[in-house]
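agent: user wants the full assembly modeled, not chains individually. Plan: 1) parse entity lines 2) check alphabet per entity 3) run joint structure prediction 4) return tokens. Steps 1-2 passed, two entities, 1254 residues total. Proceeding.
--- entities ---
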Amino acid sequence: MSGKSDNPKQAAKRKSLPEVLRLNLRAMRLIYRRYPHLILSGQLVAIWRALPAYVNISFSAQILEELAGNRDKNRLLLLILLTLTINALLSLVDALLTRYKTLSTNLFFHKVRKILGEKQLDMDYSILEKPETAEKVNHIWQLHYNSGWGLINVAGRFEAFTQAFISLFVGIALVVSLFTSKVPQSAGPLTVLNSPLFLVGLVAALLLLTWAAPFFITKSQGIWASQASQTALGNRIMGFYGNMGRQEQGAEDIRIYRQDRFGDKFYKDKTGYWCSKGSYARLCRGSMGLYRVVASAIPALFTGLIYGFVGLKALGGAFGVGMMTQYIRVISRFSDNISSLLRSWGFLRNNAPFLENVFDFLDIPNEMSQGSLPLEREKVREYEIEFRDVSFCYPGSTQYALRHVNVKFQAGKCMAVVGENGSGKTTFIKLLCRLYDPTEGQILLNGIDIRKYDHQQYLDFFSVVFQDFQLTNFSLAQNVSGSDEYDARRIVSCLRRAGLGERLEELPEGIESYYGTHFHPDGIHFSGGEAQKIAIARALYKDAPFIILDEPTASLDPIAEAEVYSKFNGIVQDKTAIYISHRLSSCRFCDEILVFQNGFIVQQGSHKELLTDRDGKYSQLWFAQAQYYSGETG
Amino acid sequence: MKFNNAASQEQEARRKPRYSVIQNVAFMVKLAWKEKEKKVLVLGLSLAVLSTAKTVASLYLSPAIVGLVEKGAPIAELLWTLFFFTVLLLTLPALMAYVSGNTAPGRITLRTVLMGAINRKACCCSYANLLDKKFKDRMMEAYQAVDGGGCAAENIWDVLFGLIENVLTFLCYLLLLLNVDFFLLVVITLVAFLRYRIHKFLNTYWYRHHDEEREGYSLIWEMRQYCESVPMAKDIRLFSMRPWIEKMYAKGFELCDAFQRKYQNVLLRGPLSDLILDFLLQGLIYAYLIYLVLNGRLNVSSFLLYFTAANSFSGWISGILDNSLSLYQTSLSLSFMREFLDYPEPFTFEGGVPLTPDPADRYEITFEDVSYRYENADQDTLSHICLTLHPGEKLAVVGLNGAGKTTLVKLLCGFLDPTKGRILLNGTDIRTYNRRDYYRLFSAVFQFSSLLPASVAVNVAQNDGAIDEERLRRCVAQAGLQEKIESLPLKYDTLLDRQVYDDAIQLSGGEIQRLMLARALYKDAPFIILDEPTAALDPLAEADMYRKYHEMTKERSSLYISHRLASTRFCDRIILIENGTLAEEGTHEQLLALGGSYARLFRVQSRYYQEGEMTDVRKI
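--- prediction returned ---
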């Protein structure tokens, strides 16, 4: 938690110039490597869009000049036709480039989101499962949704940069003559405009104004950025109450406990962050609003100065009205361009800490060794797994979840794992499946530390039905095989073995039936027990030497539970099986039972052996449950 | 994959709204008035006026200076004119920036008020409505109207005041350009309409064809969830699902891109027709205005003024058209929201007979030949149930998954009304009472737990006002959670829900179940309903719960649903629901003696707990 509360501070901290550049260029590189057209098309459009304004400015200046001067009809006609034709051509190319850009940036958000999604897939499960990791990702997306910070807007800002830059250069070329053309001596006092000092003063004033506008905007943006954590909390609370009424579950609780009152209280509170008596409103009225006011007043000063200088020079006879409009319009654009440059820079600078959050996440190193020793399932016929003095402590915790565990799995045997809530059962399974590595001690497969084996190939040894197993909203076949290429016959046989045979017969689409109606209107709603059977079928389809079932009967009625028990033989066949359950009845058909308490294995043996120790943990657990069933059956 | 619901959705979207644009605008204006957020209206109107003034002022700036230079005006006049414009063009944007910067809070407040109304309707509506597809569709539309910054409830102001601004500016330009030529205006207006029609027509391609894209989007969304879900991560790793996810992701992107390519090819006709129209219209404007200059009817500065005005005139016309269309769409969404808020309630609430539960009172609930059938179902889920829950009685309900136990509880609690028969509270049909008062009779632990983003104390007391500390501690202790809570640094003030608060704690499944139990005990209502309260508990915790059961439900009626038949022994009476009927009824011993379904269930479950050899147990 301490790491988390640092975040807002970190976000508010200003980054140094090289840091800002490094982070933003890295963001651009990251996107370019994945989606080069996205960057290229954006830059091309930016360059192209810098041009049309100048074509119009310079042609209409010439037309005005001609109108104010010679009024030569042929020349006017030529100028008009040229303007119109060039405009049409520019628009044509613009339309084509825009199409290219739209297609290249289609689904940009989803594409960027996928970059982070892939990182989540690549990550060690042990890191992914930490609450801090989930919070990092949530933080990143919340800041994006709330205020646009993060990866998404970087490319757009670089485009603005390019456009302003090109525009500035073309513009400069068009106003060189403003400074070279002199007011004739006949103009009297206006000749002062010819003085280089005057020019320097003017340029300095213009530069100051140009710098000032984005300065104030960046200031107000900075206040906004410093609010990021507060706005995020406000939005998260809003997220809860905004979904309260519409979620599928919980409607009963809401009515019985009148939870609508909490919603009402939240919604009636006008002091909430965004509301009229909240802190955002205060910022708008106060500093943030005033910075914006100053920033938006500045362009008028800039325009005023330009008009004054150019107007007076024209009045003095340095050039005609046509050129005058050209200078004014071009220089007015200078102000826009420089503002745009500085605004973009301001954004990139304010955004840098948020990018750092993104890279912090993407750079999280995987800690588990991937191993290189080949372990092909087909080739390893004989296998034996042993826990040798294994202890485990969750990262960030001081308390050991497993202590000095020594156990050997015998191939083909069935083992039950029992214990109170929090005694270490699930951790034990997670270590076995290499979702975590032991803190101390070793887990050995055929005498070799499992960390030395190829990770993926090691995982191929295990089929697991987790307590919170997850199915996808796709066809039964895709669910069971985890792929879109599968052996249909084997899928049917696995579903049958899992006990879903009868139900399967009823389905018109068979194994092509969709799980749920999310992706197919004719999809099938399966009950919790049926879903569990599909998950078991998936485990069977994998056909791994180890099969692990974690609380598979928690939500089943007695008959369905008995069905799982009775099918157990058929399910596990000759595999090594591990069965975790709070219903100790399941221990009866396991060869060996491990009893966990406070992370230790306190007892180990068969049901019968363990019951002989009347004071042991197992007896205590067993009789706690069995007392209610003893003696009275018919 | 098919998407036949898409067609019906579209049809729904085309249905006639109940409220007109005028009615909806009036509704929002009244809301602003009533909620003392008049500033929304004042700021919006000011912004429209200021913006118009700024547009007109900037239109005149350039021609004014050109005019002065053209006639060789004195330096002072030039400088004064410039000073006047600079002040004007400095003040107007500054005011606009301040006004527009302050519009958001008021608008958000009003949206929040509407969200509150929707939330209240959703949380307080008749439970039966939640099973009604039409109601749920309306609810979705209502939420859409208030979701996020671009939703109808907030956007209406931008659209409304944008329309006003466009009309005002249009009128100014109209007055100005009438000086030039009426027919020129007619031509520009016609071209603007033509352009608007073309773009609108091209855009309809999206409405007509975006079903092609929908499947792609669904795939992308789905795969995104899979990538980002922590529980799913285990399955993905163990079952090597990554290549499949990548493939589906790629398919999703490809489907969307393919649609987008076709759509963009259609849209391309927009800029192409624009450039032709621009060519012709601009040519006409140039030719006509230059003709006037050459004939001496215009000077250069007026030429500049009219040329600029004529070129942007069509923009204001299309602005009016676009804004009108947006206003219509926004109003449509608001109308749907209001239709949800008006949706009729089948249950009686404030209009019913009031009921104040008194723990000292004795309450008896009777099912009088009750049947219930879900809408569109071909058979009753429960049929002809006759049952009385006596004061202080502990009743257990058992049955297979899907037998109708949950429906029975929903009828008992007044979430559903019987299709046939009556449910009586002390002899009076419960439908006559205020349903919200009736709910006060029940404390319940349902299978789904709803934590509030608040402290442990608030979650137990379900009240953030006065909390009875002693009762809080007693209930938490009874639920077996005292040790855990008191070991936390903030104890009962510890926050829950890590989704919302960074410093909240994460409780395990078993701990949440106990917290829900403590909440039920704290409410201290005449009836306690417990639905599978021990599913996530280990054997010792489970036994502990049974031991305390009598103490917890002392002097109250209780109803207990469980698959663990051991628990039913603590109850005075057990009923077994089978295929929607009340099949067996009696004490544990009576039912065992009966030798029916209950005895069979008990035997199946207890078999594994019997002493002695179980060599053939795997073959039961």
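agent: reporting back. Chain B touches chain A through 180 residues (CB under 8 Å). Strands of chain B lie at 365-372, 382-389, 394-398, 420-425, 428-429, 442-445, 527-531, 557-561, 573-578, 581-586.
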